[in-house]
Write a structure and sequence with these properties.
single chain, alpha+beta, 12-stranded mixed β-sheet, two-stranded antiparallel ribbon, 14 strands
Length: 412
């Protein structure tokens, strides 16, 4: 108790100097928690957007099918036989087919290439949830209902609900076909893959425009447990044969996960730099305090305090500084990540600005980012900050303990 009381008095007696060292601990712990929460949140964001928007847990598409840019050929499509249907009904909790194609959309004097998702109104929502969709109008279900247009397409072509839109596309057989269809609604999906250049076309209208018959470009499978995807993907590959490429959500999101790993490393390095600065500041503070308190140390040694006791006293002061800094950094970082794990960060403006260049047109990514809040990691970051402070205090504490008692007492 004597050490704690004396250490606490010395820490608060030199509050200005110790406060500067504490700020670095606070910043280091805060950045460590915030960086991990942000990157882990982005990882889950990417995974959920990939599953809920583009691929499901397992996706089958034609072999060598292009996956980036506005390329979606309809000349080589897939079909389901009875055996594959039985496999899907047995192993999948839900499945649906889509035909992705790239027609030219024309309205008045404006035209643009769009990414059209031909969907089955009866099964699509069971695989691709629409909980974050905002629709001004209605989602089409038949050929007479028209198409659902994303806000990016609506803005570029100056469309409103009820307008007539001309779609010009190649059929499965290679002929050129065009149709005038009504706009049933304007969609905000909060995902740049859809919001920038996407439209949704119901299956009956796809049959009239592209004429694929029973063929499709994508089969999306939803499982009871997404972690079962690697094991079940091999079974689907055997059922569909070599004409189909089978990919899991893990493979589909691997490239973006690699980018997240790089970002995580960068955030961790920034936190380590701040911690190194904090360690240097604490060591300097303790060392300066040792030389300023030569007479005090000499008096304590003359009264019987051992060298180990002097080391313990200065290390305790470092523990106080580290504990307060780690606690403040942990509370600040924990509250921030908890708040954004509930409310999310709206990245719509940033994504929209970058989307004007086409950067995110082929990337499934939700514009609402929720941070990942984990109590064990927050506690670990606080312990790490405290440990840095303790280790930084040891060397100057040892220097202080080596002062000779008689010389220390005589010091001016």
């Amino acid at each position: 108790m004597f050490y704690i009381e004396l250490a606490a008095r010395n820490v608060f007696r030199r509050w200005g100097r110790n406060g500067l060292s504490m700020v670095s601990i606070v910043a280091g712990v805060f950045v460590l928690i915030l960086g991990r929460g942000f990157v882990d949140g982005m990882r889950e964001n990417i995974v959920r957007a990939q599953i809920d928007t583009a691929s499901g847990h397992i996706v089958a598409r034609p072999a060598d099918y292009p996956t980036f840019g506005l390329q979606a050929p309809v000349d080589r499509l897939l079909r389901l036989d009875d055996g594959t249907r039985r496999w899907l009904d047995q192993h999948a909790s839900a499945w649906t087919t889509r035909l992705v194609f790239v027609p030219r959309a024309i309205h008045g004097n404006e035209s643009m290439r769009v990414r059209a998702f031909g969907f089955d109104p009866a099964t699509d929502e069971s695989v691709f949830p629409r909980s974050q969709w905002e629709v001004d109008g209605s989602i089409p279900g038949g050929s007479q209902d028209g198409v659902l247009v994303s806000r990016g397409v609506a803005r570029a072509l100056q469309l409103v609900r009820g307008d007539m839109l001309i779609l010009e596309a190649r059929t499965h057989a290679g002929a050129l076909n065009a149709m005038s269809v009504p706009v049933s609604g304007i969609l905000t999906a909060r995902n740049p893959l859809i919001d920038n250049v996407g439209i949704f076309v119901p299956k009956p209208l796809v049959q009239e425009l592209v004429r694929p018959g029973d063929s499709f470009s994508h089969l999306a499978v939803k499982l009871r447990d997404r972690d079962d995807a690697p094991d079940l993907a091999s079974g689907l590959a055997q059922a569909m044969g070599p004409q189909a490429e089978i990919r899991t959500w893990i493979q589909e999101s691997a490239s973006l996960m690699g980018i997240m790993d790089i970002r995580q490393t960068a955030m961790d390095m920034l936190a380590m730099v701040l911690m190194a600065i904090a360690a240097t500041g604490i060591a300097n503070t303790v060392l300066m305090a040792a030389y300023e308190r030569v007479r005090e140390i000499g008096t304590l040694r003359a009264m019987g305090m051992t060298r180990a006791g002097v080391v313990g006293l200065f290390v305790t002061e470092g523990v106080f500084t580290g504990f307060l800094g780690a606690l403040l950094g942990g509370l600040l970082g924990g509250w921030t990540t908890w708040s954004y794990s509930r409310n999310g960060i709206d990245l719509a403006a940033l994504i929209q600005q970058a989307g004007d260049t086409g950067t995110y047109d082929s990337i499934p990514f939700s514009t609402i980012l929720y941070m990942d809040f984990r109590e064990p990691f927050i506690l670990g970051a606080m312990v790490f900050g405290l440990l840095v402070a303790v280790l930084a205090s040891i060397y100057p504490a040892v220097v202080a303990s080596r002062l000779a008692p008689a010389d220390a007492v005589r010091a001016e």
